[in-house]
Amino acid sequence: MDVILSSLLLWYGLTGGSGEQDITPARVAGAYLNAAAGHQIVQPAIEIAGLNGVAADAPAKADPQPDAPEVKGVYVSAYSAGSERFPSLLKLVDDTELNAMVIDVKDDNGYITYATETPELLEYGTPQNYIGDIDRLMRLLSQHRIYPIARIVVFKDTVMAHKHPELSFLYEDGTLWKNNKGESFVNPYREEVWKYNVAVAKEAARLGFKEIQFDYVRFPEGVEQRAGSLTYDKTEQSRVDTIAGFVKYAREQLEPLGVRVSVDIFGYAASVPAAESIGQDFAKISSDVHVISPMIYPSHYGSGWFGLDDPDKNPYHTVKGAIEDTLEKLATAGGRKPVVRPWLQDFTANWLGEGRYIPYGKKQVEAQIKALNDSGVKEYLIWNAANKYSFADSSP
Fold this sequence. Notes:
This protein is of the alpha/beta class and 396 residues long. It has one domain (3-37, 71-391): Alpha-Beta Barrel (TIM Barrel). Helices cover 31% and strands 12% of the residues. It contains 12 helices and 11 strands. The chain has helices spanning 3-13, 25-32, 78-81, 86-95, 119-124, 134-143, 158-163, 191-207, 239-254, 282-287, 315-329, 362-374; strands at 72-76, 100-106, 147-153, 170-171, 211-215, 230-231, 260-266, 291-295, 339-340, 343-345, 380-383. Strands 9-8-7-5-3-2-1-11-10 form a 9-stranded parallel β-sheet. A two-stranded antiparallel ribbon has the order 4-6. Helix 10 (282-287) links the parallel strand 7 and strand 8. The chain is globular, with a radius of gyration of 20 Å. One of its GO terms (molecular function) is hydrolase activity. Residues 73-389 form the DUF4015 domain.
């Protein structure tokens, strides 16, 4: 989940890194509109036709799984999926209303999480044997009637950037750009990057995953501020149209395989104009996916959102406000409206500082789910990076 960037945008991009100043909706909107052009080098990436957004009269998407269940799932890291912890996660799903798992197939570093032997994937990617027996994993999911979703982290890919620096962002001296956490991104303008990630998704579909969930579908934060000192291929298309183009391309490639395509996106993207600097436009992305998953974690909204002083301390009202904004943003989508399946918070945001957060447990998760249900949204996903979920907590 794109939790790191959400935190960086809120606490570093908007407060100078202190994490102590209040974040108002106006300031967040201002950051979203702070865009700049990238640096163009001599040989631009090839353009793929039909990437200039979606016409208002475009035909409705064809859902490849019209009989899919109402998904209620949890995130499962590749480490958990391939370790002795996995049986306890299976039991969690068996014993609750949960019925789905979002499992890392290409993780936050860019590693493919099982031992693939596909030449196309090995050319650009690097496998790790986190999931020792991927076929056995898929059999277990089927036996437990768990809806399997493959999480693929797209443009944040330190592994590919080191392996193919020409597909990334470089300083003028040829060294690789990285953010303050040492992570690198690959260039969303490059066709090779598109094809590689879709190839990973196609293999996940062949393995038996019913849905492909793309995460980090964006340009890296802060790169626009360094545009003059970085070199990377660039076409005439805007960043927003480039990201929307990738999503359209991925859906068209994967839909015939019978798998749904979903995208994770910032929760507050539904409340503000398009994020030109990182290339995310909520409406454009939503129009070309089967499922949209806004990350509406209460901890990621600053003081002032939805009239609340401390959104993290008000899980019901924060999620209620966020989902109402989401539904309003999609009100005119017509036949291109995706299934709305938000990410909810099951972690304690103690980094917010004393008095600004509360411990999160079963009660707080249920409050978020109630907020969705009260707005007519029945599907959800629950995030805890350590995969320790309070649904397993039997306390009141």
